[in-house]
Amino acid sequence: MHFHDKPNTYVTNIEVKVSDLQRSLTYYQDIIGFKVLQQEANRATLTADGKTALLTIVQLETIEQKTSSTSGLYHFALLLPTRRDLANIITHFRQSGVYFGASDHDVSEALYLRDPDENGIEIYVDRPESDWTWRSDQVHMVTEPLNIPSILAEADGQWHGLPANTVMGHIHLSVSSLVAAETFYTKGLGFDIVTRYGEQALFISTGRYHHHIGLNTWYSEGAPKLGENQIGLKSYTLRLDNEEQANTLKANLRQIGAPVTDIDGGFQTEDPAGNVILLKF
């Protein structure tokens, strides 16, 4: 999983707002297989290996209902180490009566589901990068039916929660303008475009990964940003390589008019769709 290590810029932790912390904790532990790393009255940090934060859930005191589509989280994606791990979690989902969608993206095999607050989740495994097809600087990705029997043939029945070396593989965001998002993420944050889906979706990465971030306007073209008291994405964290990179990115962001605020261990910014990003070493 060298795509999720320095010097690449990659997603480490997702922070989502939920309506009922205990209900979400039960779901994320019993169904998804997280362990609790830290818990407070209205928030909990979840982990796969017992030390690395992957997901933070925050209970809102006041909940404002959405009256229309907004920008924000499309899904966050947990990357499992092996195909056998994917087989075992499919078996677990079936035994638990959990509905899930499934797709073959050529570069990866993926499951899709939603938490009790309808926050989108992907759980996937990558195919070997030697099997990915690149045409110049564009990686070939598709959405085809997943061959679940082929995956299940590798199951060994050993599901004990998320494997310790599960990582946050990527985040997929709903944005209000793909043009504005492209400028922000490429010119501001230095990501490379690796796939375009017409004028409605864009996939970007560092280090020639198939994508660390997905961006789309499928349900959010021109939509307002998510409200502070609405369920959904609160923030997500990107891992920086070093201070020199941080200073370069801050200068680039300021040049395109994006906000920059220093925080412990790095800085904070916000994309044009209102998604809050923490950039840390």
UniProtKB/TrEMBL annotation:
Alphabetical list of SUPFAM superfamilies matching this protein: Glyoxalase/Bleomycin resistance protein/Dihydroxybiphenyl dioxygenase
Domain VOC: 10-126, 167-281
A Pfam family per the record: Glyoxalase
InterPro entries: Glyas_Bleomycin-R_OHBP_Dase, Glyas_Fos-R_dOase_dom, VOC_core
Organism superkingdom: Bacteria
Protein's name according to its UniProt entry: VOC family protein
Protein's organism: Lysinibacillus mangiferihumi
